[in-house]
Structure formats: C-alpha cells, structure tokens
Design brief:
39% of the residues lie in helices and 33% in strands. It has 461 residues and is α+β, with helices and mostly antiparallel strands. The chain has a domain at 119-253. Strands 2-9-13-11-10-14 form a 6-stranded antiparallel beta barrel. It is rod-shaped and about 200 Å long. The relative contact order is 0.18.
Length: 461
C-alpha cells in the first residue's frame, strides 16, 4: 500500500499538470483567436488593374514668343485669363519696330487695292480687248505690206536691179583693165587721171547698183519680219483677252493674295495673338520691356482636357484598349481618387534601357481646380472587371506544401482551406476552385509558427 500511494500521487500530479497545461493552452488559443483579424469570404466585383506613373499635361500647349525686335507697348491680359483663338495678347510700339515692319502697312494697302481692282474693275478686260483689236489691225497691215512683194512690179524692179549690178560689174572690169596700164604712171599724168576717174565712176555705179538690190531685198525681209512680229503680238493679245474675258485670272488673284498674306504676316510680328483658345499660364514680359526675336512672352494651355501620358510594358499592352476606365491619385492631393478613361494607345513600342514600352494617354473625366499640369499621377488602368465572384484578400493567402490555402475560423478553431485563384487585383483575388465558401471567416493574420501540435487540419468539403 505504501508503494502504491507515491505512484498515485505522481499520476495525480501528471493529470493535474496536463489539465493545467490544457487549460492554459485553451486560454492561449482563445486569446490568440480573439486577436485574429478576420473578414468573411464574400462575393463581389474584381477589378484587375495595370499601374503606371505619369505627369499631367494640358490638351494643348503653346509657348508664344516675339518674332521681331521692339518695345512692349501694352499687355492686354492677366495670368489665369481665359482667351479666345486669335485674341491679341500684347503689342509693340510702332516707333520701335524695324523699317520693314513699318512699311509693310503701305505695302498691304497697295496689294489690297490691286486685288480689289482686279476683282471689281472692268478696265483690264477692256484694255485687253483694245490691245487685241490693235494687234489684229497691225497684222492685217503687215499682211498687206507683204503682198506688194508678190506683185510683178516689185519682181521686175528687183530683176532690173540685179541685172544692173551685172552690167555695172562688167563696166567696172573694163575700167580696171583700162586703168591697169597707167597705174604706175605719175598721178599728175592727164591720161592716168582720166582712166582713174573712169574707174572711180564705175566703182560708184557698181556700189550703187548693189545698194539698190540690197535695199529691195532688205525691204522684203523687214516686211516679212514685221508680219511675223504682228502675228506673234496678235497671238499674245488673244491669249491675254481669253484669260480676262471670263473674269480675273485665278493665277493673278493667287499672286496678290500671297502678297497680301506675306505682308500681313510681317505686320503681325508687331503683336502676339493666340493660336487657339485656352488659359494664360505664364507671362514673361512687362510693358516697356525691350524684346528681340525668340523672346518668350506667354504660355498658353488648353485646360479643357487634362491628360496623363504613361508608359506600359509590352507584357501588359495587349490588355489595354481605348475606353477602359482608369483610377488616378496624386501625391499633391490627399485622400481623393479621380476617374479617367484611356483615350489613346500607341501602336508602336519604344525601347527604353532594353525594355519595350508603349505610350498610353489617359484623360481625366472629373478634374477639378486642384489638378494642375505638371503634377505626378499614379494611374491604375482597369484591364478586367469580373462581377459576382468569390473574393479572397491577397494578404490572407499562404502556401502550404506547395498548395495555396487560407486560414479560417471553423467552430472557434483555425482550419486550412485550399483555394485555386484566378484573376487578381492589387488587394484581392478571384477564387475559382477549392473548399472556401461565402461566409467563411478568413483569418488575415494567421500565426507564422505553430506549437508542437503543428498547423491546423484541412477542412474537407
């Protein structure tokens, strides 16, 4: 009996210890369960997003600069003003402009008057018709003049003149033969003097006969040339009249319009006007400033649309299309999310540091006065959206023995549930298989290390 009592005491102590340890473990487990963060598994909408960072820009931007030298005379707007397209913003003093710009005003008036005359005056057409009639008369007179050379009288005169040249040539030869014997005689010899006079007379008669022939032939050639010139002038006059009879020549109008446009462009250098409607976002000049070509005067932004340009990897670009919804946040604007839409997707990628990226433009659909060009935006493009699917928080998913699982509270105890995941966003994933059910309490912060009893068992359903 004495030997049994110590054994019984030991057994009792062991039982008490076990019960105490079990109670302690139960209290610890209950305390741990109370410290778990849980969320019920539920069905909802999953949005898969593609993130990027970009900078806000306006729909259109223009840096307006002076194109000539001068002194700023007046500035007609203030910073932040809304302006219309073609509105004059500032101008230079006329006296400070270059001579070419000042004289352009008179050149413009002359060109405009010339164009007005061309479009509204009948004088050019009437003058062209008058010149046509004169050319026709001159051509007729030239034709009549050439007819004379076909008449027998002229032909006879020309034939007689040519025969006279032949006769005078014979007389000249005879006179030369008569003079040759006396050529070396003294010049005061009477016989030599008579033969020399006969030779000179024969030479003069021959030269005169040649001049008569040349004059008759030259007259004919000149008359023929006059006819050709008259016919050419008639053709020119006819073309000019044909060009003007139905109204001003379009080419003449185009020349004057180009001259007016060029002169106006020179005048326009004396002021700055807006190329499009927008908001003045920078003013760099003051009245009295001296400026030169290229001096920046204003910055103009079209703030009717605010855009963000981002670059997307080639891995994700095929998941992005025009019209997809976008969520945007800004470091400069706390606790507010903005909406947007994909407006452009580049069809050609660019290599940046060995990575192929595509340009994507996002338009803000609900901007306010807090969003400004130049701000950095975090862009999340909603590439996919799935409705009424079972969702699980990404931070609750663990891997046990190569299998994805989540911890749930099952009847007050931890249990493992296998899950097969589908599409995923930054915070949640779609459950497409496994034992998880809607309503199961998912543990978001399961223990990292388990006691000697090991991890909880799987829930088999």
């Amino acid at each position: 009996m004495k030997k049994i009592i110590p054994i019984l005491i030991v057994i009792a102590l062991l039982v008490v210890g076990y019960l105490g340890i079990s109670a302690l473990r139960a209290r610890q487990q209950q305390s741990a369960i109370e410290n778990y963060n849980t969320v019920p598994a539920s069905r909802g909408t999953l949005m898969a997003t593609i993130g990027a960072t970009g900078m806000v820009r306006s729909n259109q931007t223009a840096i307006l600069a002076w194109q000539t030298s001068g002194k700023v005379d007046q500035i007609d707007i203030s910073l932040g003003d809304s302006v219309a397209a073609g509105q004059v913003l500032a101008s230079l003093e006329q006296a400070s402009l270059s001579q070419a710009v000042i004289l352009a005003q008179s050149d413009l008036i002359n060109a405009q008057n010339a164009l007005d005359d061309l479009l509204n005056s009948d004088l050019p057409t009437a003058t062209a018709l008058q010149n046509l009639y004169k050319a026709q008369r001159a051509a007729i007179e030239a034709e009549r003049a050439i007819d004379r050379f076909e008449e027998e009288d002229y032909k006879d005169d020309l034939e007689d003149a040519r025969n006279d040249v032949i006769d005078r040539m014979e007389d000249l030869k005879e006179a030369q033969e008569d003079f040759e014997p006396y050529e070396d005689w003294a010049e005061d010899n009477e016989t030599r003097r008579e033969r020399k006079q006969d030779l000179d007379d024969a030479q003069n008669a021959y030269d005169e006969a040649v001049r008569v022939v040349n004059l008759l032939e030259l007259e004919q050639n000149l008359t023929q040339a006059n006819l050709q010139a008259a016919q050419a002038a008639l053709a020119n006059a006819q073309r000019e009249y044909d060009r003007l009879k139905d109204g001003p020549d379009p080419d003449d109008i185009a020349v004057l319009e180009a001259r007016i446009a060029a002169t106006q462009a020179t005048l326009d250098m004396a002021h700055i006007e807006t190329p499009f409607a927008g908001t003045i976002t920078a003013i760099n000049n003051k009245v009295g400033d001296r400026v030169s070509p290229g001096t920046t005067a204003f910055r103009l932004d079209d703030l009717s649309r605010l855009l963000v340009d981002v670059r997307i990897s080639e891995v994700d670009i095929n998941r992005i299309g025009v019209g997809q919804s976008v969520r945007l946040t800004f470091d400069a604007i706390l606790d507010k999310e903005y909406s947007g839409v994909v407006s452009e997707v580049s069809g050609v990628g660019q290599v940046t540091q060995g990575i192929v990226e595509f340009a994507v433009t996002v338009e803000l659909t609900d901007p306010d006065e807090n969003v400004r060009p130049g701000m950095t935006a975090a862009v999340n493009i909603i590439a996919e959206q799935t409705d009424n699917v079972l969702l699980v928080p990404n931070r609750a998913v663990r891997v046990v023995d190569g299998e994805r699982v989540v911890y749930i509270l099952n009847n007050g105890s931890l249990a493992l549930v296998a899950v097969t995941l589908g599409a995923s966003s930054g915070t949640e994933s779609e459950v497409i298989g496994g034992s998880l059910r809607a309503g199961d309490l998912i543990v978001l912060n399961p223990p990292q290390v388990f006691d000697t009893m090991g991890p909880p068992p799987f829930v088999r359903r």
